User: Which sequence fits this backbone?
């Protein structure tokens, strides 16, 4: 009997990804791995179809933006959950904002459809092969991707809210 | 989302699809929503109708999008709680407490048992309120107004309890990071005892009106069904998934707030249709009642908040008389708390499914990124599949039984 825990999961992911496993750590009880966008679909498929792990539930996925990480500005985070073994994993990929084309996960999970549309809407990440990649929450004629860090929440021209006393 | 003026130009479905106009074409286009009295919120569905049956559906969402994820990137952690109110506003306390639990997980706070139990009481009251709304509205959509009118007074009683616990009713902002802002008042105890004594009768009355009602059953059985496999593939959680027969409940699978102290069962359906969703919610209300009773009877003594001077506001009299307390008060109000850098995902069982918070902190005063896993945003995309081939009136019923809340859908 194999104990299905984070160590086993880590071994399995490491043996599947090989050199494509860029980073691996355990934070707050959840295993968090980083891989490349080329191997993300094969990893998701591997975990989904793994006979022991059965991580077939895509809990959520979302974009993230680190403007200072040159060459790796944009990212997508996937959360997979195995309802059989009650174990979760967080998978991250990072890529350049000039080449933000990622293969779609809709081929594996129907639920990825709107999640990818949301990531496209807010971060401009293009999911290759997505059946209906268009904005979901914002208006169609919006010409920017609002959750990127270069769009400040407040009007940048305001001068009445100077709070440099607080180190900001 | 389309501008209203743009719909005829951009929206293929609105033109009648398949390049034929609505009259001579094979299908009739019906624009259901965005503001339609039968959709209980701002949802637009452009339906292609074959007579009375639905051929295909094109959904448009985002009409009340308020950019919560962006707002959260500018707000200190304490000030994000009121944002979460506006997600699933039928059960705001669950959202509030879910957020506080996420932050407490990030700072690895030690929470007293009494706080856990108080939170369980509040959250289960919220679950009952949420299910009351959903189930009574299913009744209304089948033409049974009476049940709705009768059971809604119990939701009012729950809102009175919220009011006693935190001062507000709908958007509760209940609790703080570390616990509650105040202990349960004597009136709360009186009202809760009365609620626990009287509510079973009210719920039974509602059950008697609908559960075995022949007309109601004929109307809702086999309406908008979904199989367990499809439900899982579409990321269903909560009562909708359990109605399809999958016993996934975050309270049991990943217990938080000492839920493992309580003995309760997870009601399951088999068909995943409207009747099963209705029945699962009915049974969950009884289970919630059981949990509240157990939590209230065993409510531990102790403090109603954790010892977290960096995050939890000191008592007012100390703020005025004690330098340390004043400093902490100032720092907390100005959002200058020391946050560890890190990433955390935490989920709670919300009124309609797994409500998750993915929080990325870089150690700054605000989250670097906060993503809400909103259960109804994820499962509402299955709606076209569930109503394909159904009657229009069944589509209305399916939507109300899925408990799609516009605030949560659009974040």
Assistant:
């Amino acid at each position: 009997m194999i104990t299905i825990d984070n160590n086993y999961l880590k071994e399995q992911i490491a043996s599947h990804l090989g050199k494509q496993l860029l980073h691996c750590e355990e934070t707050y009880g959840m295993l968090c791995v980083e891989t490349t966008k080329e191997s993300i679909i094969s990893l998701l498929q591997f975990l989904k179809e793994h006979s022991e792990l059965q991580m077939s539930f895509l809990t959520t996925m979302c974009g993230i933006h680190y403007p200072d990480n040159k060459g790796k500005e944009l990212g997508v985070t996937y959360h997979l959950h195995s309802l059989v073994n009650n174990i979760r994993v967080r998978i991250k990929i990072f890529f350049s904002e000039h080449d933000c084309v990622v293969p779609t996960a809709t081929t594996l999970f129907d639920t990825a459809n709107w999640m990818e549309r949301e990531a496209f809407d807010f971060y401009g990440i293009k999911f290759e092969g997505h059946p209906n990649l268009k904005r979901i929450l914002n208006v169609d004629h919006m010409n920017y991707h609002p959750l990127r860090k270069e769009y400040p929440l407040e009007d940048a021209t305001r001068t009445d809210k100077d709070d440099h006393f607080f180190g900001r | 989302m389309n501008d209203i003026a743009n719909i005829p130009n951009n929206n293929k479905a609105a033109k009648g699809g398949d390049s034929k106009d609505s009259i001579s074409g094979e299908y009739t286009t019906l624009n259901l929503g965005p503001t339609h009295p039968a959709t209980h919120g701002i949802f637009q569905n452009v339906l292609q109708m074959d007579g009375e049956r639905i051929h295909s559906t094109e959904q448009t969402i985002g009409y009340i999008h308020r950019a919560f994820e962006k707002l959260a990137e500018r707000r200190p952690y304490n000030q994000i709680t009121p944002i979460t109110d506006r997600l699933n506003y039928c059960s705001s306390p669950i959202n509030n407490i879910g957020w506080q639990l996420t932050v407490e997980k990030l700072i690895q706070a030690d929470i007293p048992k009494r706080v856990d139990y108080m939170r369980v009481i509040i959250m289960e009251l919220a679950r009952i309120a949420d299910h009351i709304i959903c189930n009574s509205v299913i009744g209304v959509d089948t033409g049974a107004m009476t049940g709705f009118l009768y059971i809604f007074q119990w939701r009012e009683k729950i809102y009175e309890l919220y009011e006693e616990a935190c001062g507000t009713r709908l958007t509760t902002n209940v609790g703080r990071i570390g616990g509650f802002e105040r202990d349960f008042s004597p009136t709360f105890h009186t009202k809760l005892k009365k609620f626990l004594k009287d509510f079973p009768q009210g719920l039974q009355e509602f059950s008697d009106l609908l559960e075995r009602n022949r007309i109601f059953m004929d109307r809702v059985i086999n309406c908008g069904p979904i199989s367990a496999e499809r439900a899982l593939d579409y990321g269903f959680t909560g009562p909708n998934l359990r109605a399809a027969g999958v016993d996934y409940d975050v309270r049991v699978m990943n217990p938080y707030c000492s839920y493992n102290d309580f003995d309760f069962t997870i009601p399951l359906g088999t068909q995943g249709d409207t009747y099963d969703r209705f029945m699962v919610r009915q049974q969950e209300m009884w289970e919630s009642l059981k949990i509240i009773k157990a939590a209230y009877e065993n409510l531990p003594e102790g403090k109603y908040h954790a010892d977290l001077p960096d995050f939890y506001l000191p008592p007012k009299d100390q703020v005025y008389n004690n330098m340390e307390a004043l400093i902490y008060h100032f720092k907390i109000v100005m959002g200058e708390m020391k946050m560890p850098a890190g990433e955390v995902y935490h989920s709670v069982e919300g009124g309609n499914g797994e409500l998750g918070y993915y929080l990325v902190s870089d150690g700054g005063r605000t989250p670097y990124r906060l993503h809400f896993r909103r259960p109804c945003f994820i499962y509402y995309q299955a709606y076209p599949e569930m109503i394909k081939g159904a009657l229009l009136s069944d589509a209305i019923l399916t939507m109300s039984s899925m408990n799609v809340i516009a605030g949560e859908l659009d974040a």
Remarks:
- Chain A is about 20% helix and 25% strand.
- The helical segments of chain A are 6-17, 40-49, 112-123.
- Residues 51 and 126 of chain A are 31 Å apart (CA to CA).
